[in-house]
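Fold it.
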Amino acid sequence: MLFVFNSWCLCAFVVKFYAMKKKILIALGVIAFIILLLIGISYIKFLKATKRMEELSRDLEQRITEWEKKEYKRLPLFGPAITGNAVVFYKEAETMMTTLMKNTDVGIDWSDYIERFKPLTSKALSDYEKAKPIIELVRKGNNAETYKSLLNIRDGFSCKVPNLLSIGYIAFAMVIQGKELEKNNQYSDALQLYCDIIRFGDGYLCNGDSISAMIDFHCSETGYEEIRRVLLTHKLSEDDLNKLISYLKIIFNPEPVYENVCNTEGLLTEAELIKYAKMAGFFPQQSGFGSSEPKNFIDAIKLQWTNRIGYVNAVEDIRVAYQEIKRINNLPYAQAKDEMEDFQGRIKALSPFSQYLIPNILTGKISYLQNQAQRRGLYILCALEIYKARHQKYPDSLSELAPSIIAQVPLDPFSDQMFIYKIDQDQKILLYSVGENLKDDGGNERNFNDIVIAPLKK
């Protein structure tokens, strides 16, 4: 009886074991089927992405070809126009300055002289003498008839971009030359040189990439500061003031607008992504875009590891995003500021990879408008000085400057209203833009609240 019972138990165990094994096998089979199905679906997506990549690549090539045709015709700033491409002169000047920096350790003494008002050392003076041919190259470039960028967009982010430090030191060398002219009371010649610095910076905005735009803002700021200093610390003749305002009128608006940067940066980003997409296969690989701060581990994996599908999807996202960026950048600042917040919210729905590549659009626009506020403010300040030279006093309001001195008074690019202008009983003036917070802070420059044109910064 016991034998029969044990045999029955053993048979039941064997039957149950095989039943469990069958269920396990079925479960494993189902899992394998689902995995194969998902791989199959992913592979179909991969094939579609490959086809789409080829379409995007052809379309990008056409748009890059169109971009390469773009060139800017420029009025000469001073003297006769020079045949040729301004960027060729600028690149040669940049190369010469880079070499000079390596060989003589240029920089520290110049910065101390210009930014900290320390005396010019003998070494700094010697380095400046070596930089004079570089200054002449820049001034030739400023009078060149055209500016045609030599940027190779097909290289994506690895394309050759200008050296910000070298160009900054070229601007410093030009300031030193200008101050030498001022010592001999050659104010008109010095002011020409400071306007040359602004035109030099503007040339780089024609490139269109964000680094070149930074160079424009940096160089232009150097020129603004020197012109402002001369206007507010020297009693210039009406003839000198009229010459200056004629120069400022030419450089009142740089050739391209900030939209040029959006167009070029969009093309560069697409070129970079398509370059990686062509190298990527079906299985995820390291993306090379891992310097962001992902919210969680999954986002980190999506950002660090992707395949061709991820790159192609990012190209599609970038295309749409940059069209929206251009639209917002063309809006008045107050409206753009509000719409940017909505835009930043919408891009959170995109993949971490796409989010990483989309810039904070308002940062660049603010820098550009700060640049414009300085430029327009200087133009107004020069007109105020001309008015004072004629009437022995400043006007009661900016509206009195037009049309006798300037055709119209430029508006604050942030508020699209008149610059804030105040005058006290001692004929001391206060002129400023409300800046990015759109509030009148009484001429307070702390935290960049207001952009003060006059008086000079302390």
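The chain has a mean pLDDT of 85.
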